[in-house]
User: Fold this.
Amino acid sequence: MYFRDIIGQEPLKRQFIKTVRGGHLPHAQLITGTSGCGSLPLALAYARYIACTDKGEEDACGQCAACKQFDKLVHPDTHFVFPIFKPNSHKKWVCDDFLPQWRNLVLGEAGYFSYHQWMGHIKAENAQGMIYAEESDEIIRKLNYKAYESTHKVMIIWLPEKMNETCSNKLLKLLEEPPTNTVFLLVTEHSDALLATIRSRTQLIRVKGIDQAALADALRTRTDFDDQTITDASRMAGGSYLKALEYGQTNEEQAWYLEQFIRCMRGVYTIANFTPDKKLEKQRSLKDLKQWADEMAKLGREKEKNYLAYAQRLVRENFILNLKQDE
Assistant:
């Protein structure tokens, strides 16, 4: 991942480059933004630029040994932590056990993927992703070594809000007394879920939503969407490339979400507008809503959360449409 590969976010690209070229790297930065806005791609491009031995004024060179290693995400001084699950209890599972899948998804999606995509990629099914206590010991072990090839060791922690309490407390101690020449990049979607003491020991970097023009350009070059779909998707995505892709792609899951949303809204509308002469309709709607709720309760937790996010977005878009506003 290079800075040139990132959709929009020009001010932040310049800020990161200026930080590296100025020679004063903060020991810990908290990069926070919603899913699909480019927080992880920014962290990856930033880490590459730190390691590059022939930096250009606007990007890494792409030719040095460090850049070649980054092309495969195998640079020895860059480490990754991310949510995982435990397939069984026969061993202590850590992120390195899932590193091949991580590299595969990061490189395949250019860093633009969601937590749900990641959990699906590692076949977690209904398991909740966590960063377990064992991972904190791995972080300490890796950072105790000197940098092999770069001037700095970089620890990228994706979704640190998924850390359990033990891991969070050990990370806090590391941030209070960081190893020499170490850079922590915490990439979060919910910074308020982190310990306040962790937030206070990091430099906050807010990643805004991608502007519509940059989103439209990316969709035009990276997808085969027609012009109208590109226009609609970039407008409705709320600055998220992932949501823009989701809007533009027609698939069975999205169609099912829409069907369930319509079913729920129609039932609620009938009940909310009940009059004495529509008693039978109300009873039918109540029965259907109960059946709907029972069906939704049988879904896995992740699918339930996906549906709620989809419904939330539709409600928002309906409000915007009624107000006749662009955003």
Q: What stands out?
A: The chain has two domains: 3-206, 250-323. The two ends are 30 Å apart (CA to CA).
